[in-house]
Amino acid sequence: MAAKWLGGKSGGSSEWAGFIDRGVSIEGKIVIAGMFRVDGHVKGSIASDHGLLLGENAHVEGQIDANDVTIAGRFDGNIFAKERVEIQSKGVVTGEIHSPCLVIQSGGILDGHCHMLSAARQEEPLTIPIRSGSQVVSQA
Fold it and tell me: 0.70 exceeded by the pTM?
C-alpha cells in the first residue's frame, strides 16, 4: 500500500500515520509522527518527522517541515526538508525550498527560490533562483 501512495517508490521502514483525502479542507497546524499523504486542501503548517506526499489533487498553502517531501499537486509557501524534495511531473511549487537535495521531474514547475546546502560547507547555503516550465535547464 505504501508503494502505491508514493507513486511506486518503496516506503522504507517508516509507518504510515494517515492521509487527508480529496474533498477535505483543513486550516491550522498539523504535526505528524510518520509518513503522511495529502490529497485535499490544507492552509497552515505541516510538520512531519518522516516523509510527506502531496498527491495530484493536493493544494497546500503555508509551510512544510519534513525529512522528505514529494509533490505531485500544488504547493504555495516554504518547504524545509532535511533530506530531499521531489517535484513530480504534475507538481507545481511556488515559494522557497530549503533542502540539501532537489529533484524536479520533466514537467514539474518551481517558481521561486531553492536554498541548498553546499556539500563542502554545510553552514553556508547555496541559493539558486529558479523559474521553470516544461523545459529542462541544466547548470554545469
Answer: yes
